[in-house]
Amino acid sequence: MNQPQKNTDDFIFGIRAVIEAIDSGKEVEKILIKKGLGGDLFKELFEKIREHQVPFQYVPLEKINRITRKNHQGVLAFISPVTFYDVENFLPGLFEAGKNPLILVLDQVTDVRNFGAIVRTAECAGVDAIMIPEKGAARINADAVKTSAGALHLVPICRTKDLKRSIVFLKESGLKIAAATEKSSDNYTEEDLTGPTAIVMGSEERGIEKQILNLADAQVQIPILGKIESLNVSVAAGLLVYEAVRQRLHHS
Length: 252
Fold this sequence. Notes:
Helix 7 links the parallel strand 7 and strand 8. 38% of the residues lie in helices and 20% in strands. It is α/β, with parallel strands linked by helices. The protein is elongated and about 60 Å long. It starts with 5 loop residues before the first helix and ends with a helix. It has a seven-stranded parallel sheet with strand order 5-8-7-6-10-9-11, sandwiched between helices.
């Protein structure tokens, strides 16, 4: 049976079931908890959430009911189909393996299909990892896996609580931070991307957060010659990633 049912594939519900999922080492993406929930069993769950640092959110009962009407007891956990990595443990391994790291950082890319398409391109281009924030990122669900053509099972996803801090870590580890922004006047093809590089993409609505933009070693833009002011983020990410690939192939 290749296609699990929706509720086993994407989320689980009920306090005991969620405790067991955390204990068994399942990759819990986020837990929704009904406001005002209490009791001993809930206390046990909350200790697990704290111990394993699982992201959670208090929500009105209706929000959980919209997802499932089954006996959820006010608790529902989204399960991720992929395993997340910690960039601080992951990056040194790339250098040790003699790689010239190319990492893609996504700041506030929340559209699931754009995210899936970006991962697919990144896999084809040999990107070493994709870094996303814990909050303000697309849900990694069955839809994302499908749009990525399965690439989400192949490209390591590094998830971080603090995107700014993790970018500073990349910088201190010797990566050039290249941020894509239409505010720049520097053409992306003129920036040297041959060394260890992290390419930062922002959301279509808001772009890259100002504090993150300030951390960049280079700000680059893709020329827009038509009337629409911006490219789809997955297309823009593809252009930048493949520019790095082109330069590296040429360079070697």
